[in-house]
Design brief:
Layout: E1 4-7, H1 15-31, E2 36-40, H2 47-56, H3 59-62, E3 67-70, E4 77-81
Parallel strand pairs: 1-2
Antiparallel strand pairs: 2-4, 3-4
Amino acid sequence: MAKIKLDLHDIFNRGQAIEEELHRVVEKAIEKRIPLIEIISGKGSGQLKKHVLRFLQQPGIKKLYHRIEKDDKNFGRIFVHFRH
């Protein structure tokens, strides 16, 4: 199964860059019909993960994907599933 992996460690403290990267990978997944995005937010304080989840819950974004899965084995990882 094809997937896109987005590691946010390098831009963890740049809010606008985080949103731009999230938009980019969501658009790429839709355009290329890729069924899964793996987002690595890291374990840290959890603020980056909260930022990602808030982004994914926006009405305009939420309608684009099928579901979100929080990895129960790795706190710092989120999967976004698409139905194409």
